[in-house]
Write a structure and sequence with these properties.
Elements (H helix, E strand, L loop, with lengths): L4 E6 L2 E6 L2 E2 L4 E2 L14 H14 L3 E7 L22 H9 L5 E7 L4 H6 L33 H22 L5 E5 L19 H14 L14 H5 L12 H28 L5 E5 L29 H6 L5 E3 L4
Helix pairs in contact: 4-7, 5-7
Length: about 325
């Protein structure tokens, strides 16, 4: 029977309830990115670690999963093939590893395959100097040198289609064991804006999103030219000190705009999960924190990583208000 999972207060504390009963155990998630010096693991390592945790009493297991492609090095490749077919066998293999009787919460990474990027160059994220390529590799374990603009509506449509295909597959085969889905994206799955070690995003999709955002915020009468994204020079002013809200109004607004964009994408995908599972499953995401540097040392803008000034984590109030999201979480660091 497909479980019904909710979040309710128990003794004043938000608690996961499964089929009307509070879940009081602990959850487990093993990192599987192939970081430099840690690229020798295989499925045997995963099976050993997950079984060990199950024997110790863990009752809820998170697993890394893709519904289309990935930005990081994994044991499997793209699941959305260029010929239009899907291969979700990595999910099957994870479910074979996990002990029957434990609950599962897949972490779904929201990236499309590299062949999609090649076919849609106008949808890619662009830096202030017009580049679409950058060095994302190294400590981040990335395996690609460009990524899509989160403002791309084409990306949203295709990503949603892939998510729906994944959910239909997972629910039809393992719906009685899955209690929810954690939607991941961006820097290390935590919805930091990829490329925020530099000045992003000057793509055509982002320009359109920015213009609409400014028009809504100021009812069509902004105190600056809202048709263009603030320049690198303007965004860099105020480095090392508090921004002047008069001279840096456009730069401040663009940082807020990036965060609204991230929340739009998270809530949209979580709404898809709720709709596709008839509201029976939990939705979760990483959001709402400013932590250590993730992608570089750019002064003022980049050094605060995925929660930083242009990292996309500055709209927590909107995420908390969304009825489509049950849980937010963060890494233990």
């Amino acid at each position: 029977m497909t479980p019904i999972a909710t979040v309710q207060r128990r003794h004043g504390v938000p608690t996961i309830y499964i089929n009307g009963q509070p879940f009081t155990g602990w959850s487990y998630l093993r990192a599987i990115e192939r970081y430099p010096g840690f690229d020798q693991y295989d499925w045997g390592d995963l099976e050993r670690d997950y079984r060990q945790q199950a024997e110790a009493g863990a009752g809820l297991f998170q697993i890394h999963s893709n519904c289309a492609g990935d930005f990081y090095k994994r044991l499997w490749g793209d699941v959305w093939r260029a010929d239009g077919t899907f291969d979700f066998s990595h999910l099957d293999r994870f479910m074979e590893i996990l002990t029957p009787g434990v609950w599962v919460l897949p972490n779904i990474n929201m990236f499309l395959p590299t062949w999609w990027d090649d076919r849609h160059p106008d949808e890619l994220l662009r830096f202030a100097d017009g580049r679409t390529r950058a060095k994302f590799t190294g400590e981040s374990a990335a395996c690609r040198d460009q990524t899509v603009s989160l403002a791309s509506e084409k990306w949203v449509a295709d990503m949603t289609m892939c998510l729906e295909r994944y959910l239909d597959y997972a629910e039809s085969r393992y719906g009685d064991r899955i209690v929810g889905y954690l939607i991941c994206g961006g820097i290390t799955h935590e919805w930091g804006v990829l490329g925020s070690f530099d000045f992003v995003d000057y793509s055509a999709p982002m320009v359109r999103y920015w213009r609409d955002w400014v028009a809504r915020r100021y009812a069509g009468h902004p105190p600056y030219d809202g048709t263009v994204i603030p320049s690198r020079d303007l965004r860099e002013r105020g480095a090392g000190r508090i921004r002047n809200p008069v001279e840096s109004r456009a730069a401040i607004d663009f940082q807020l705009c990036l965060s609204d964009l991230v929340v739009d994408r998270i809530t949209g995908f979580c709404e898809t999960v709720k709709r596709r599972t008839q509201g029976r499953k939990l939705t979760a995401t990483f959001y709402g924190y400013t932590i250590s540097c993730r992608e570089g040392g750019l002064k003022f803008l980049g050094r605060y990583g995925c929660g930083g000034f242009q990292g996309g984590h500055l709209a927590l109030h909107r995420l908390l208000q969304s009825p489509a999201i049950d849980m937010i979480t963060s890494p233990p660091t």
